[in-house]
Design goal:
The protein has six helices and six strands. It has 219 residues and is α+β, with helices and mostly antiparallel strands. Strands 1-2-5-6 form a four-stranded antiparallel β-sheet.
Amino acid sequence: MLDIQLISTFVFLIFLALFLLTKRKGLVIQKIIYPFLYILMYRTKIGLKFMKKTAHKFGSILKFIGLVSICIGFVGMIMISFLLVKTLVELVTVPEAAPGVKLVLPLVTTKVSIGLPFFYWIISIFIIAVVHEFFHGVMAQTYKLKLKSSGFAFLSVIVPVVPLAFVEPDEDMLRKRPLVQQLSIFAAGPFANILVALLVLGIFYAVSYTHLRAHETRH
C-alpha cells in the first residue's frame, strides 16, 4: 500500500516543477554558490495592501513591538551562539555526543536531518514563512518604507527543494533610515515566529491539560 505522505511529496514536486516551468520568465536567481546553491524568486504584490493597512492601524503598538524585538533578537543571538559553541566543543571532546543542530526535512531521517511527515513539514514551512515575511513587511510599512514586491522563493540545492516567501523593501531607502528602524524591521520576522511558537505551545499545553483532566475525571 502506497504511503499518502510519499504520494503527497511527489505531487508537490510535480506542481512545483509545473509552476517553475510556467513562470520561468518571471523568475529571478539569487546566486549563492551557483549552480549548486541558489534561490529562485518570483515577485508579486500579494499582501502589500494588507501590510500597509495593518501598519497604519497599529503603528504605535508596532513601533513598541519593534523595540522589544530588537532586545529579544540580541538575547537570542547570544544564546544561540553560546549553544553552538557548546555543541561544537562537545562534538570534539565527547565522540558519542549527539548533534545539537539538524536539518528538518520531509521523510528524510539521517544523522544530520530530522524526518517529518510531508504535511507537517509543508504546513510548518508555510506558517513560518508567511508570518515571518508579513511582519517584516508590516514593520517596514510602519516606518513608511516602500515595499517593491512580495512573493514566493525556493531554496535550491542544484534543484528547487524548499519553498520560501519574501518581501522586498527599497534597499536604498532602508540604508538611509536610523539604525533603530533598520533593526526593528530585521528583527520583526524572527520575533513574530517566536510569538507564534509560544502561542502553539500554549494551545498544545491547554489541550493536553484539558484532556488529562477529563481522563482523571472519568477514572
